[in-house]
Design brief:
Elements lengths: L4 H11 L6 E4 L14 E5 L6 H4 L2 E4 L2 H11 L12 E5 L5 E10 L4 E7 L14 E4 L6 H10 L4 H20 L2 E11 L5 E3 L2 E5 L8 H8 L2 H6 L10 E4 L4 E5 L2 H13 L4 E6 L13 H14 L5 E7 L6 H19 L16 E7 L4 H14 L3 E4 L2 H18 L1
Parallel strand pairs: 12-13, 12-14, 14-15, 15-16
Antiparallel strand pairs: 1-4, 2-3, 2-4, 5-6, 5-8, 6-7, 8-9, 8-10, 11-13
């Protein structure tokens, strides 16, 4: 989860990283009550880049010009996104601009400090210009000073820049972040530093541990909806495709592997959900049972899904409840379709209930499998129990083909 610039600078100010006087603008008329002195810069608050080239950054010197510029900025889409907020900020004259970042490097599983004497730099081709220091042990100011020295800074500038890096690292750890970036860090003629722009990426799996971040996240689903993503999937570690086979698993690896096998078998995956984790945007506790129940409701509501393939392996809390949830789900929809007028009734009813293919692997799920098989035999529930993943994938693909031929 990424933050907007005005949110980033609020966090910077709280931890002691110098930021310019600024004010959030929700409507152009807010500039009539501006509390910071002119000249100012108006910045579009969007998640995409290239604001300057797109016209999302304007320098103005009067209220009239500021209102006119803000009206224009609010109507400029950047990477397909219109801003809901503009940041008004005091203009700053920098003598030098630097690039700084603290990032979690998944390759070495350690935080890394990054720095460059050029702010406007392409990170993919930075080469020798970008300096780095791996934080190999418990953090100390030594690491920050070492980065500043590798960047070629000396004296007061070395001290002030290393102080900023220390605070960036502290912010990364305290908030469970993946990235803290300042680009650029401005330095004036008096060797004073200022974070002129910044980026923060929050580790989504840590959101529930921070109520303040969870509150920010709860107000962000509209961003995903604007990009065409289903609102019901914003709470999931999910992939939304357009096939007829919905896939559920209890791990990202198993979900992706199942998707690949379905595709190789000639099928087309639809919604794919990882049930291992609770919602990263929801701080309230959940259980595996509640996630499975909700996932089944989401997939059955999608009229394009003809088959739901459930691939569970390993250890699952309250494993026996899996059979109970699946049975209750099928009974609910069977009874619903037996009700008078269901076929010709509500517009939201689907004509064909999705078939279920279930693959359960692991000693913890042996009893679950037996319980489910017994319930299927007793109640004549239309579920396919597969012994391995290849068999499950083949059954799911064949069920979709059979449904197509029947039509």
């Amino acid at each position: 989860m990424d933050l907007l610039e005005y949110q980033v600078k609020e966090w910077f100010g709280q931890i002691g990283i110098p930021v310019l006087p600024s004010q959030r603008i929700d409507h152009p008329t807010d500039l009539k009550r501006l509390k910071i002195p002119y000249p100012i810069v108006l910045k579009s608050q969007v998640y995409g880049g290239a604001r300057l080239k797109a016209g999302g950054v304007r320098f103005v010197e009067t209220t009239i010009d500021a209102i006119a510029a803000a009206q224009n900025i609010f109507n400029i889409p950047i990477m397909g996104e219109l801003p809901e907020v503009i940041l008004a900020e005091t203009k700053y004259d920098a003598e030098q601009e630097l690039y700084l970042a603290v990032v979690i490097d998944t390759a070495v599983c350690r935080p890394i400090l990054l720095g460059c004497q050029e702010a406007d730099i392409d990170l993919d081709s930075a080469g020798k210009k970008m300096q780095h220091v791996v934080v190999e042990q418990e953090f100390s100011p030594f690491y920050a000073r070492r980065l500043a020295l590798k960047m070629g800074l000396q004296g007061t500038r070395m001290q002030t820049v290393s102080s900023v890096v220390e605070k960036m690292y502290r912010l990364l750890i305290e908030k469970d972040l993946d990235l803290v970036e300042i680009n650029p860090l401005g330095i004036n003629s008096r060797d004073e530093v200022m974070a002129l722009n910044g980026s923060i990426s929050v580790n989504e799996r840590a959101i529930s541990r921070h109520p303040d971040i969870a509150l920010i996240a709860s107000k962000m689903p509209s961003r995903y909806s604007a990009n065409g993503r289903s609102a019901s999937l914003t709470e999931w570690e999910a992939v939304e495709l357009h096939g007829k086979i919905g896939i559920m698993g209890n791990g990202a690896g198993s979900v992706l592997a199942t998707m690949d096998l379905v595709t190789n078998e000639g099928g087309k995956p639809g919604i794919c959900l990882n049930l291992r984790h609770a919602s990263p945007l929801d701080a309230s506790p959940t259980t595996f049972r509640s996630r499975l129940e909700k996932a089944l409701r989401i997939m059955s509501a999608d009229k394009s899904i003809q088959v739901i393939l459930i691939n569970l392996l390993g250890s699952i809390p309250q494993a026996l409840e899996v059979a109970e949830v699946i049975t209750e789900f099928v009974h609910h929809y069977k009874n619903e379709h037996k009700s008078p007028g269901t076929r010709n009734g509500g517009k939201n009813k689907r004509d064909n209930f999705p078939r279920l293919v279930v693959r359960l692997a692991g000693s913890d799920l042996d009893e679950t499998k037996k319980e489910l098989k017994a319930l299927i035999a007793h109640d004549d529930i239309p579920i396919v129990i597969a012994e391995n993943l290849d068999e499950a994938v083949g059954a799911a693909v064949n069920l979709v083909k059979t449904a197509v031929y029947k039509k």
